[in-house]
Amino acid sequence: MPDSLKAPSVKAALARFRRSHEFWLLAVILVLCAGLGAANPQFLTMQNLFDLLTSYAFVGILALGLLVVLIAGGIDISFTATASVAQYVALVIANAYGANWFSLFAMAIGTGVALGAVNALFVQKLRIPSIIVSVATLNIFYGLLIFVTGGKYIYSLPDWFATGIFWFEFDWGPTSSYGVNLQILILGIGFLVTWLLLNRTNIGRQVYAMGGNPDAAQRLGFHTFRLNMLVYCYMGAMAGAASLVQAQLAQSVAPTVLVGKELDVVAAVVLGGASLAGGVGTVLGTFLGLALLAVLQNGLILLGVSSYWSPLFVGLVILISVSVTAWSQRERRARRVRA
Amino acid sequence: MKEKSPLSLVTRIGRSLGGGTMGTLTLLLVSLWVVFALVIGERFFSVNTLQSMAFQMPELGILSLAMMLALLSGGLNLSIIATANLTGLTIAFVLTRTVPGSEGMAWVGWQLLAIAAGFGVAGLIGLVNGYVIAYLGVSPILATLGTMTLCKGIAIGLTRGNVISGFPDPIIFIGNGTIFGVPFALVVFALCAVPVAILLNATPFGAKVYMIGSNEKATRYSGVDTRAVLLRLYVYSSLLAGVAALVMMARFNSANAAYGESYLLVTILAAVLGGVDPFGGFGKVGGLILALVILQMISSAFNLLNLSQFLTLAIWGGILIAVAAVPHLRALLRR
């Protein structure tokens, strides 16, 4: 819930937070961090924190877009294909005609928004369930991209893009210096904008309402078409931004490697407590869901566990987490019935 | 009343064909067939083309059946590919350990034991899925996302991503042999599709599955043990994935943790194209088979025309949108 049920006192707010999904998630992450920090001193270093943020920025930015779609009561799994297309279009044009940071992001985000609008049109105008639309458009966008480009990788990127950015540089100790790179910057902006959209705007409120009860929202006079359009275009915009972040990190445009990763993003968002039924989900939860996956995978590597085993642990955590959540929800409901 | 009766007759025929989707799909199939026949000509009807179509379809077909079962109940089974790969690896592991001799009873028995072990693994995954979904009340997409990652993790962890290959002839026959010119894999598909169709349409269990898909709460309140039905359903779904594993490993003569991953969303595409409601309650095996034939025909025709397989993917997506839009467009026209 956003601040619609804002408690009068900090104490009540804390009490409510203690019962929330996010609290348990945070507790698990803190326990995990403490254990990993004790086992390997490398874990709780600035270096590791910056590395984690950098390598999980792509999934994180996509997760924010998906969060908004899920809250609105829809689903989108075509975003990996959208990102692949956006990446290719923006960097091919940048290579051919030149570009700067602003125009490059404008092109990628614009491509993403256009493809998001296609999804929204199919969902709204043809009344096709969003899961069908996005399964179909994933194949359409991806199939056409590889058909047109032949699936060729692009390794020569503009120099300024390959170099990236390094802002607010500061030194920590004698040998290491840190700064905000492109990945962390875009991830931060993504979180800020999504939080503002969902919690501080009228539109965000309407998105929650529409996801909670679409019929009621429509009868109250919400423009559900415009709202859905905005939601899917926002997902597209996030996919566009994420695609450049990924290209900069990988130092190449790889049209075939992103598709297939959509379920990783779904996992992060639903671990964060967003419901597939719509109307439920928070930016904080999504951050924590992402953090849990990141800390787990990173921690296993630092503990010396072969990365071959990491999906096993991720699967276990997902299964246990969703089971415990479902079980505790049922207990609470049962208690309410008894009371 | 009089002028109403022909309409009701048409709707009745339409319903018995699967609520209009069968009609749309048949029309689509025939028109695609005519177009491809005109464009490609004789080669499209050659025995080779037909046989290669029949070899390729069963894998996707059996996996789509597994997905369809979950979809009918209003759920989803994202773990079918991971289940299939883990099953395939189990069978492959047992087969390649100690094969006693190269014929005789022990040799046959060992192969049957390997297959049994594989199905044991598949059944176990199905039980986990069913228990978590039915008894703990986790949404199917999340539960199977978890088991998918878990199974893949076990498979990758144990094999380090390597391939296990080299199977005895009878196993390879399942994927590559023919009986009177009909690929044995197609026979296996029929041996899956017919029982599933009977299970869904002619047994109380099938009726309960459709009811749960339409309204789970109402079904429970009308005295059906919905949890037991769902548990059984996910076990069946897993076992079908196990059959797909057998066909897949036999065709490639190898097993791996990452085979067929691109099939996952295509099985949803095939099922929904075949008229399965993604929210549950509606859908017939006949529709799924029509959809599979359409998808396979497009793929084979594009192959003959030397068009990219990725263009096939795009066309598949476009056809799904077109078919899914038909009910709404029809309603618009009627108005």
Q: Give the SSE string of chain B.
A: HHHHHHEHEEHHHHEHHH
CATH class assignment of chain B: Mainly Alpha
Counted by DSSP, the helix tally of chain A is 15
CATH topology of chain B: ABC transporter involved in vitamin B12 uptake, BtuC
Distance between the termini of chain B: 21 Å
Q: Which structural class do you get from the secondary structure elements of chain A?
A: mainly alpha
Average pLDDT of chain A: 88
CATH 2nd-level architecture of chain A: Orthogonal Bundle
How would you summarize this macromolecular structure in one to three sentences?
By secondary structure, chain A is mainly alpha-helical. Chain A is built from 15 helices and two strands.
What features would you describe in this structure?
The complex is a heterodimer of chains A (339) and B (335). The longest helix of chain A has 29 residues, at 310-338. In chain A, 72% of the residues lie in helices and 3% in strands. With 339 residues, chain A is mainly α. Chain A has one domain (20-259, 286-308): ABC transporter involved in vitamin B12 uptake, BtuC. Chain A has a two-stranded antiparallel sheet. Chain A has helices at 10-19, 21-39, 46-55, 57-71, 79-97, 101-125, 130-149, 159-163, 182-199, 202-212, 214-219, 224-250, 262-271, 283-302, 310-338, and strands at 167-172, 176-180. In chain B, strand 2 (178-179) and strand 3 form a beta hairpin. Chain B has helices at residues 4-16, 21-40, 47-72, 80-96, 105-135, 140-159, 169-176, 184-202, 204-214, 216-221, 226-252, 263-273, 285-304, 309-334; strands spanning 164-165, 178-179, 182-183, 254-255. In chain B, helix 4 (80-96) runs antiparallel to helix 5 (105-135) and helix 9 packs across helix 11 (226-252). Chain B is globular. Chain B is 76% helix and 2% strand. Chain B contains 14 helices and 4 strands. Chain B has a single domain, classed as ABC transporter involved in vitamin B12 uptake, BtuC (Orthogonal Bundle). Chain B is mostly helical and 335 residues long. Chains A and B meet through helix 7, helix 13 and helix 15 of A and helix 6, helix 12 and helix 14 of B.
